[in-house]
Hints:
The structure holds two protein chains of two kinds. By secondary structure, chain A is of the alpha+beta class. Chain A has 13 helices and eleven strands. In chain A, the strands form two sheets. Chain A has a six-stranded mixed beta barrel with strand order 3-4-9-6-8-7. In chain A, strands 2-10-1-11 form a four-stranded antiparallel sheet. In chain A, strand 3 (102-110) and strand 4 (113-122) form a beta hairpin. The longest helix of chain A has 44 residues, at 263-306. In chain B, helix 4 (115-128) packs across helix 5 (144-156).
Amino acid sequence: MFINAFIQALREIKRNLMRSLLTAMGIVIGIASVIAMVNIGKGASQSITKSISKLGSNTLFITPGQQHGPGSQSAVAIPFKSKDVEVLKESIITLDAISAVESSSMTALYGDQNYQTSVKGIENDYFKIQDFSFKSGRDFTSNELRSGLKTCILGKTVVDKLFVNGENPIGKKLRLQKFSCEVAGVLNPKGANTFGMDQDDVILVPLNMFLRRVSGNENIHLIMVKVKDNIPLEEATVQIQQLIRENRHLKPQDEDNFSVRNMSALVDTISQITSMLTIMLGAVAAISLIVGGIGIMNIMLVSVTERTREIGIRIAVGAMSQDILIQFLIEAVVLSGLGGLVGVIFGISITMIVSYFMHFTLIIDPTITVVSLLFSMLIGIVFGIIPARKASNMNPIDALRYE
Amino acid sequence: MIELSGIYKVYGTAEASSTVLKDISLQIKEGEFIAIMGPSGSGKSTLLNILGTLDVPSSGKYNFETTDVTALSQDQRSLFRRYVLGFIFQGFNLLKKTTALDNVEMPLIYLGVHAKERKERALQALKSVGLEDRADYEPSKLSGGQQQRVAIARAIVTNPKVLIADEPTGNLDTKRSHEIMQILQEFNKNGITIIMVTHESDIAAYASRVLHVRDGIVEREENNVH
Ligand SMILES: Nc1ncnc2c1ncn2[C@@H]1O[C@H](COP(=O)(O)OP(=O)(O)OP(=O)(O)O)[C@@H](O)[C@H]1O
Ligand SMILES: [Mg+2]
């Protein structure tokens, strides 16, 4: 009976193919977004965790001001000065590397090429913190750092954009809006980071030069720190907090007017945002599944009415009400199940495309796939029951007379 | 085999009611070929539908062999029709966009017959009405006479004891009508009881007994000798 009802259902869907496709669209969209959402979410968070354990797990970011939740900087954000960085360097032995970082977006010119990129003023420890190595050339000399001589170090993307005919950039002079600098080194490429940002799209210059030529003041808005391998992050964090509080003469009851964060705090923020997005997308998915279910109910009601005579014939030759009920219920389930199947295929395709372009780990969760398919069938049952009952309760005489 | 006693059928409410069947009592023996005749609106279809258990009487008794049919629930009546009765309608009532073969197979699905045997039996039934070469045709590609023959094949494929036919030739010309009647007579000779409603006396002539209905009562009956 079930097999026959299944075959009958497929035949019926084929007979009204266009209508069936449109009807199942809501389910397709709903299931596709659930699958894509869950899989991309998992892939993204795995990639983030992986890359953090790879290079960021012992890095701390010290910034002026306090952040209360994503995006809201408190009013009193007093920037750091060079001497704050010096104090940290001298007093805390748990730190492996430390560098102030100032950055600005600028257009770099070489010959007749120009390219907009991120220019960062840094100290030599930056290479260690960021795990950069040199393809050619060298890092900054202490003389360059101290007096802020005009040298710069280029990432691969910048080299590719400016030195189009493959010249060796070392020793060449670039124009950076307000000043020019001589290329001292080229970095090995690192590719895109977890968030899809090209880490090689950068020009590094000595911090002091940046402060003098670009900022025009001594203000420092970011200090990056690499903690020694065997030291827990929390311990280093507390040490840094105490030292800065002392330097800034904060009273015990005062809140910190700076913050020390690590990548995991950043990840928390990101996962907060992603979970918000997930909830929103989940709501969209839920709504489209409900709409899809109503669509199926609607089309099944139409189908039951259209096929009143058929139902009458079937009852006349001996179909019991449960036979009719099962037939129409299976038809609804097959319709929504096929919608679910197409949705799964779309969802997985979207996951693959997004993961590829965003450089996320590709995860296709078998559980969510199976659950989605079962759920789409459940929608068929829930929304198919009313039309199926209507069909099974028909009186044979009236049904046979129906025009 | 069939025994009706004191059957009434009343339509409508107590104030505005119409009694369509009035105290009908009759007996039908196995192997009979009954024709029900009468003017339009006399209650022929109503009587036939009650005999076919598609409809239920307002009062009275209907016994089929040892079964009290009036005591059956709707689903039990479905089972009764499934195993005991076959139906032929005036308007053929075939499933649209469904091949002749699939139409004939349909009642066998409810009997739980497996696909292979189903196909064999359906082809056999189509052969018995001379349509084995039209098995893959959909109703829209068949003539009226051919459609009614498919309907007959569908009615007899389950080997019913009784064939119920409401004006089986009502939509056909004289020549096709007589072809259909010859087929039905053949099945009757092979032991199937047939109860048929008709308007035309030359169609009723194929029956062994003719019941004349007027205003809800059996006015007169006559026996035909063939
Ligand atoms: N569902 C119904 N509700 C009310 N009255 C009905 C209903 N069905 C039939 N009738 C009435 O019962 C009477 C008998 O109808 P029936 O269909 O049995 O006639 P018939 O003898 O088959 O006529 P015809 O030869 O035209 O087919 C008619 O007057 C009809 O109006
Ligand atoms: Mg009639």
